[in-house]
Amino acid sequence: MQFPESWLRNLVNPALDTAQLAHVVTMAGLEVEALTPAAPPFSNVVVAEILSADKHPDADRLRVCQVDVGEASPITIVCGAPNAAAGLKVPCARPGAILPGIEIKVAKVRGVESFGMLCSTKELGLEGAADGLMVLPEDAPVGEDFRSWLNLDDTLITLKLTPNRADCLSMQGLAREVGAITGADVRLPQVRAVDTRIQDTVPVQVSASEACPLYLGRVVRGIDAQAPTPRWMAERLERSGIRPLLAPIDVTNYVLLELGQPMHAFALSRLNGGIEVRMARAGEQLELLNGQTAELAPDMLVIADASGPVALAGIMGGLPTSVERATVDVFLEAAFFTPTAIAGRARRLGLSTDSSHRFERGVDFGATRRALERATELLIDICGGQAGPITEAVATLPQRQPITLRLARLKRVAGIEMETDQVTRGLAALGAHVERQDDRLIVTPPSFRFDLTIEEDLIEEAVRLFGYDNIPAQPPAAPSRMLPQDETVLADDTLRQMLVDLDYQEVITYSFVDPAWETALDTDARPLPLANPIASQLSAMRTTLWGGLIETLRHNLNRQQERVRIFELGRVYTSQAKQPMKLGGLAYGDVLPEQWGASSRRVDFFDLKGDLERFFGHSLDTRRGTHSALHPGQSAEIWVDGQAVGWIGALHPRLVQAFDLPAVPMLFELDSQMLSQRDLPRHASLSRFPLVRRDLAFALDVHTPAGELLTALREVAPGSVQSIEVFDDYRGKGVAENQKSLAIRVVMQDTERTLTDQDVEDAVQKLVSAALRQCNAALRA
């Protein structure tokens, strides 16, 4: 939310400069995102009136102007602006003025002496482009300092509000907040009930009372919609990011900013019959104020007349009933729509409006009538007219239940001493009703604080008003004890560090994804749709980590990062009940960074498999498998201790093309729960007896994985066998065409005695028999 500091100080003016004010507001939980000058610095510019503008004798495009700058006699200025004409009031830079990028001096222009410069908005740094001089209103005081007259020394403050603080989406709410924080007096706008001079009304019926518990409307006849918007109002609107349009519309926008109540004005002559607040019907459409035709859904709340919808409730009005310059009679509406009735509807239509932003977070239902009276008063003051009585339709409004704040709990949770009177004054300054009962406070939140519901909320408010930066830094009083650590569980941080040690970098990607990603990566995936997505391309929950990893790869490639090794540890959402933790990784580019000591080589399947063996060791088993996201000839299913735990492989060529990747990345995804389980470390003494090594060569089917043979051998290996590893894979002369020869290194050692030849022979025979029985592998001579 953006607003001018001068408007805030008109309501509450603490003895703080701009920087100090921004600091205390930020420390109270309302983050000041930016402080921006209302205008760039310039000096010695005054309001001037052009008395005459005659053609320059030696230049067709220049005019010699006689200009009144509030002195005894006019001055001469040569001007090249096409709109320079007698009677205009414009800003004039006097000699010695410093403008953005230029200093004004007395100069001769084609033989005519010029004593200053008439300015456009561009020359003053107020806008990026200009077609001519900046034309000022007729009532602009000649000779007045231009900067002071337009209050250009103002500062624009931008707040980054959290969704729970909808009460601060108005100047009234911000003033109340600053007053509570600083103790300064708050001067809220005085609103009086407008005299009823006509009896005209529009019948109102609320059919969707749960979505709209309160609806107010009023007829105002005989307005002049073309009346100029007062300069003070237009200035505040512009500096809050709203462009002034037409006085009746500007009034409703002003009340929205001032009091936080979205409003709408209908052209009364364009309404057909009474007003009904109801849910949209199937097939209904509405042309909105921005020219967009909205296809209405049955869960959208609309304002309708006898002919159909005339406004999308809480979001935007309809173009056919909008106020125009010729409008004479209007129907003003102000309502309270429940947040659940508005949330997500604007985004579904690709809209984001000031009204929907406020209604989605909660609008003060206790100030709706006050806002309507304020808008009526301003409308009549600016545009004239006569107001009718307020028509009200009210159902069951939300109830603000009292909350008990135990002072002892406040002290225990906050960890600091706070005076009870100080806490009471602070909560009361926020608009709450506070009653003291022994050692507790009974606090009834005001109607505009939807976020205050439990005791912890009040504790947060008390600490916030005390000031986070006023809390003393104290060493912890509790004794520090080492917590037990289960050595059979691999901690997530340890897992992350192991991957970082392997040259991977951790990334954190959105759990919200494009459903098309998920079905492309896994044809069997059924991603869970989001009821209220933050964007159309983030409308489902991820079923795999690969989509985010690939998008991160693309982001890096677009920034000329050609070697990428990343991982993510996070949840996937296969169903509402199943949300397992997964570890996903991606490797792309060269195995090693570019260097002189090793030749360049692209990362492949076995590089990635080697990284995973760091975690699982000999228990890792890769088995042939097919995954829709992986290359059918370069992929495998990962098994550990007889359980399938994930996948490893190269991205499928179809997806490489779909994601527009220049080369193929290698991927893996594992069940992190299986990773975290490991055997309890046990002490084992180093053997003093010699090692025995036997090399065995087995001939077996070429399609039998080496891992299958190793698993068979390790399952039957006696305790004296220390390791079984493959050290050669041979295919060629001496081996049948459909077979391969795997050379296995078997290392044996006993911790109690020296192994005999018979011990070694028995162990070898056991291994050979298992290879033949389980893998049909024969020992080569």
Write up what this structure looks like.
There is one protein chain. This protein is of the alpha+beta class. 25% of the residues lie in helices and 26% in strands. It has 21 helices and 40 strands. Helix 6 (247-259) packs antiparallel against helix 10. The chain starts with a strand and ends with a strand. The model has no long low-confidence stretch (mean pLDDT 90).
Radius of gyration: 38 Å
Poorly predicted spans: none
What strand line-up does the widest sheet have? 28-31-32-36-35-34-33
Mean pLDDT: 90
CATH architecture designation of the largest domain? 3-Layer(bba) Sandwich
Indicate the proportion of strand residues: 25-35%
Net shape: elongated
Structural class: alpha+beta
Question: What does the secondary structure layout of this molecule look like, with pairings?
Answer:
Blueprint: E1 2-4, H1 5-11, H2 18-27, E2 31-37, E3 45-55, E4 63-68, E5 75-79, E6 89-93, E7 98-99, E8 102-103, E9 107-109, E10 112-114, E11 117-118, H3 146-149, E12 155-160, H4 171-182, E13 204-206, E14 214-221, H5 231-239, H6 247-259, E15 263-267, E16 275-279, E17 285-287, E18 293-295, E19 301-305, E20 308-312, E21 316-317, E22 330-336, H7 339-342, H8 345-348, H9 354-359, H10 368-383, E23 386-387, E24 391-394, E25 403-406, H11 407-414, H12 420-429, E26 433-437, E27 440-444, H13 455-466, H14 492-501, E28 505-506, E29 512-513, H15 515-521, E30 540-541, H16 546-557, E31 564-571, E32 581-588, H17 605-616, E33 620-624, E34 630-640, E35 643-651, H18 653-658, E36 666-671, H19 672-676, E37 692-701, H20 706-716, E38 721-730, E39 739-748, H21 757-775, E40 778-779
